[in-house]
Amino acid sequence: MNSRLPSVPMAVGAASPRRLPASGGVGLKPEHFQEILATRPDVGFFEIHAENYMVDGGPFHHYLSRIREHYPLSVHGVGLSIGGAAPIDRDHLAQLSRLLKRYQPESFSEHLAWSSHGGVFLNDLLPVPYHAGTLARVCGHIDQVQDRLQRRMLLENPATYVEFSASTMAEAEFIAELVRRTGCGLLLDVNNVYVSCVNHGRDPYDYIRALPLQHVAEIHLAGFAHDVDAAGDSLLIDSHGAAVAQVVWDLYAYALERVGPVPTLIERDNDIPAFPVLLAEAHRAERMMRDLVRPSLALRT
Q1: Where are the beta strands (DSSP E) in the chain?
Q2: Domain range holding 55?
Q3: What does pLDDT average to over the chain?
Q4: Global confidence as pTM
Q5: Residue 95 resides in a domain
């Protein structure tokens, strides 16, 4: 499987003029470093969590530097607290800037969430209320990040388990307005869409249609877990600890029909399987993209 679909623009500005390929990617895990270097697998790109590399040296940088020589790279942040009430942590942003300059990734993304308050890091991605006050604050944070990094960032839609009564906007409407005001791109996490919509009793297909799909520049796919809430009702958890569920693959196919081939990452952060298991899921995403392209090519001939 060496043929690749066309690339799509991922980063805007002088910092990263290259493109992430519209193919299947895999999250880069230390369990797989040596195997990747030894076998050079046919994978479209790798993605790392920025905070795992915010040190000057060590084995993670040793392996990433070597792997980066052969593969496109996406950097995914989890600690900027874009949605937080506090100002963006300037030290954290400076470390992130150094990391991006060091590796010049084709993509950088962060979450629509908050994870720190009062100088305390909470090790979670927490939801925000969707109203005018939050919108103005998050827009300011995104503008600050994009100005500092001199690149377009992608914003990921969240997985949520509670909602705020103070919200006056639907989540997709809120995201669309963020994209419009800041010029950021959208990282469409299909698993997050499914998890959130099931948890809140909404239709995930309606949610997909309400997003600004023309700005989707990357897609994430992951597995979820089943739980129950305090009332005993079913609750889905964005666990990243299982294979991508068929219902998520179905929703991904629906999204692809509307956005076309897009770089698609297989996320797995818990119960890490052997690398070929993840690679098979990445190749499945590529097959779905190719199947989407073939009918349109046939119509042109």
Answers
A1: 7-8, 20-21, 24-27, 45-49, 73-76, 107-111, 114-117, 120-126, 154-156, 185-189, 216-221, 225-228, 234-237, 264-266
A2: 7-300
A3: 89
A4: 0.89
A5: yes
